[in-house]
Amino acid sequence: MKRILFVAAATMLLAGCPSFYHEEPKTPPPIIPVEPSEPEQPTTPPPIDVVPTPPKQKTINWASAMTPLVNQMVSTNGVENGKVLLVDSAKNNTNGAFSIQNATSAIINAVDNSHYFNVVPQDVVSAARRTLGLSQDDSLVTRSKAIGLGRYVQADYVLYSVISGSNEQRDIEMQLMSVQSGEILWSGKNDIEQ
């Protein structure tokens, strides 16, 4: 019997019997009037943090590297004037990133300014790349791909370019190849100044 009473009492205690609950009436909190204080004196704003100037980006002077090489190339014996030249996208073999389009455009401008070759227009090259399934930013450009592209656009020569080195010291190597035979007719190398 003691057990039953004990279990019943424990059950009522744990269940929170409403008969033992006593609710107190709620009273609103007292309102305490606050005296206005003197107006605050304007404080000087904290000094503004100066935003540091970002590091100056180095611009690459592509034309100064490309023009001497193109001048050497056009003065090479065995290279015929007025032939069709495909300027293939420059290949980046450096440990840094830069715009391959800017490098390729500088090569095309230097060749155009020499008035020695008829350069295949870039829109024709882009269309041929799409047709052959070659990406515009193909980082695995090879000589055989360049010659195949040259054959597709019916060029006489292909100018293959590789940029190598580091962010601090880059150089460019160009090779003029015959599309018909794949023979390297001229090769040159120059430093790229920043």
TrEMBL record:
Keywords: Cell outer membrane, Cell shape, Lipoprotein, Membrane, Palmitate, Peptidoglycan synthesis, Signal. PROSITE patterns: PROKAR_LIPOPROTEIN. This is Penicillin-binding protein activator LpoB. One of its GO terms (cellular component) is periplasmic side of cell outer membrane. Residues 1-23 form the signal peptide. The lineage of its organism: Bacteria, Pseudomonadati, Pseudomonadota, Gammaproteobacteria, Enterobacterales. The keyword Secreted does not apply. HAMAP family: LpoB. Belongs to the LpoB family. It comes from the Bacteria. Regulator of peptidoglycan synthesis that is essential for the function of penicillin-binding protein 1B (PBP1b). It is a lipid-anchor. GO terms for biological process: peptidoglycan biosynthetic process; regulation of cell shape. Interacts with PBP1b. Its main location: membrane. Residues 42-54 have a biased composition (Pro residues). InterPro entries: LpoB. The keyword Lipoprotein applies. GO terms for molecular function: enzyme regulator activity. Residues 26-54 are annotated as: Disordered. It is found in: Cell outer membrane.
